[in-house]
Design a protein that fits this description.
Rossmann fold, about 15% strand, 3 domains, 16 strands, alpha/beta
Length: about 575
């Protein structure tokens, strides 16, 4: 305060001196003399000005930081109108656009599910309206074809599609058909139930049909020498693909044949000679009949591995590689010599693909010979299917299942109940029938004819509940199913994706739902990964269908834990 007063007194003294010397002197004639009114007057001390400026900057910085903090808080709250994850504890709900503090991490509703006190807790990954499988063109639809005719398919095949009520291609079909028509090999991967079978089968038959129209008719019929090959891991899927092929080739001069396992020795000793352009076969039967020379694959120009993740599993891989080595597969992108026989293009199809596909196909094809065709929702949770995960004890699951089945019966809905093994599958069927719920069971230990009959009975709606293993989870079209229940939580993420894909399929019921019972520690770990993927809108972790490798890894981990406990 003293320094401030001294500074003001000195300034006033200077001003008085200036006023006394404003009178002009003779020697100042003709010169400009500055008047005291034009001199700058300091009303606020320099030090005080600096303090005020610093204070203003600090206030502006604090205001900006508060604004950013408000934006972060609003972002972390998300849009309360759209709930993505609804929990039993509403404080843990996740809303659209919500983000999380990096230092605190993501709060999961299933975080404490390892404790027995968590029994009865649950959360639901809600379905979002208008977010179903892409039946219609996306935002850049002006440059994308809208009909199958725009995809350059032959008019006769387009007419057969129209007869089946298929007019508008799905997203994966719009992406895949033009590329496969060019004859290139492809890696075709998209979410379950989006129309992948039609995406690879329509261009395959189109190329066979155009080729047959251009070539002269053979003098003698060619038997057991297909020009195209579709390989599946199971019989049910092969039967379904054959039915789709028959619909596409209706009244066309194309012959599609089906080869399934069973009585293989009789087929070897007494082979049936058939004319065939397309052969749809289960892998086991095809491998055996090819090895003994019943089938000649020298004319094959197109090879499709459907459910490729299963066929490239450790339990199948070496046999599949041995079979593919017999085919003239196209290696690399270089063109063959003009006089060389035509190469066969390879197409891999699946809803989930194992990591390192190029490594698995090493020696058969190169990476640049396969065009990757995928969709944005690959390896992600289906946004149009509500998925509920419930923490229960093992003995609480039957009562919860019975309650869900009774609700479905009251609303005239169909249900698929998945188990991890045939024993549990049979027990679930017996339990539900004893409780008055009509139920059929299907598992891999049954004869194929029995499985086929029960599957067709379920498709017809009698009964409305099917207890099954993962033999039903891959590829089969279950468009009429309303609800999927995982009585046994799947062993890996890939199986969860395929089970959930039994509902919400293209051309079927749009508002399907999935309920999963979580009971054991490993199941809790998988439930946490699924919840994390839903909250962060990211791909599911470790979508790998290599079952043999996963089981071996778990056994090694279990042995290591037992050894560490023994030493301690």
């Amino acid at each position: 305060m003293t320094s401030l007063m001294m500074e003001l007194i000195s300034r006033q003294t200077v001003c008085c001196v200036l006023r006394q010397h404003t009178r002009p002197y003779p020697w100042t004639h003709g010169m400009h003399v500055m008047h005291h009114s034009t001199l700058p007057v300091i009303s606020v001390p320099k030090m005080m000005q600096q303090k005020q400026a610093n204070k203003k900057k600090a206030e502006e910085k604090a205001r900006h930081a508060k604004h950013l903090q408000q934006i972060r808080e609003d972002s972390r709250k998300g849009k309360r109108e759209v709930c993505i994850v609804r929990c039993k504890n509403h404080q843990l709900n996740h809303y659209q656009g919500q983000s999380y503090d990096r230092t605190k991490g993501v709060r999961l509703a299933s975080c404490g599910w390892r404790h027995s006190r968590a029994k009865g807790d649950h959360f639901t990954i809600c379905s979002r309206e208008g977010s179903g499988l892409s039946m219609w063109p996306t935002s850049d639809s002006e440059t994308q074809p809208l009909t199958f005719s725009d995809l350059q398919l032959h008019p006769d095949i387009v007419a057969n599609l129209r007869l089946q009520g298929v007019v508008t291609p799905t997203e994966i079909q719009r992406r895949a058909i033009p590329r496969l028509l060019d004859g290139c090999g492809a890696l075709l991967a998209a979410e379950t139930g989006c129309g992948k079978t039609l995406a690879f089968l329509a261009p395959l038959l189109d190329r066979l049909y155009r080729q047959q129209l251009q070539e002269p008719a053979a003098a003698e019929p060619v038997r057991n020498r297909p020009r195209a090959l579709v390989i599946t891991p199971g019989r049910e899927l092969a039967q379904q693909i054959k039915e789709v092929a028959d619909g596409l080739a209706r009244e066309l001069p194309l012959r599609a044949q089906l080869l399934l396992g069973g009585r293989t020795k009789r087929k070897m000793l007494h082979p049936t000679l058939l004319e065939m352009d397309l052969l749809v076969a289960s892998f086991g039967a095809l491998s055996k009949l090819t090895s003994v020379g019943v089938l000649d694959l020298s004319r094959v120009t197109q090879v499709v591995l459907d459910e490729a993740d299963t066929l490239l599993d450790d339990s199948f891989r070496e046999d599949v590689r041995r079979l593919l080595h017999r085919l003239p597969l196209r290696v690399g992108s270089a063109k063959a010599a003009p006089d060389a026989p035509p190469d066969a293009s390879l197409t891999l199809v699946g809803a989930t693909l194992p990591s390192g596909v190029d490594r698995l196909l090493d020696g058969l094809v190169t990476g640049d010979s396969l065009t990757r065709i995928t969709t944005p929702r690959l390896h992600r949770l289906l946004p149009h299917v509500a998925q509920t995960l419930v923490r229960l004890g093992p003995t609480e699951r039957p009562e919860a299942l019975l309650r869900l089945c009774r609700q479905a019966r009251d609303h005239h809905q169909t249900v698929i109940v998945f188990s991890n093994n045939a024993h549990t599958c049979n027990w679930v069927s017996l339990y539900l029938n004893e409780q008055g719920i009509d139920c059929l069971n299907i598992n891999g230990e049954m004869h194929y004819k029995l499985r086929q009959g029960r599957w067709h009975a379920f498709l017809s709606g009698q009964p409305a509940v099917l207890s099954c293993t993962d033999i039903v989870s891959r590829g089969l079209d279950s468009a009429h199913v309303h609800h999927v229940v995982n009585f046994d939580f799947p062993w890996n993420t890939s199986d969860y994706v395929h089970r959930a894909g039994r509902v919400g399929r293209v051309g079927g019921i749009a508002d399907g739902s999935v309920t999963s019972f979580v009971s054991r520690p490993l199941e809790v770990e998988m439930a946490q990964r699924i919840e994390m993927a839903a909250r962060t809108d990211q791909e599911l972790w470790n979508v790998d269908a290599n079952i043999k490798h996963i089981i071996e890894r778990r056994m090694l981990r279990k042995a290591a834990n037992a050894e560490s406990r023994r030493r301690s």
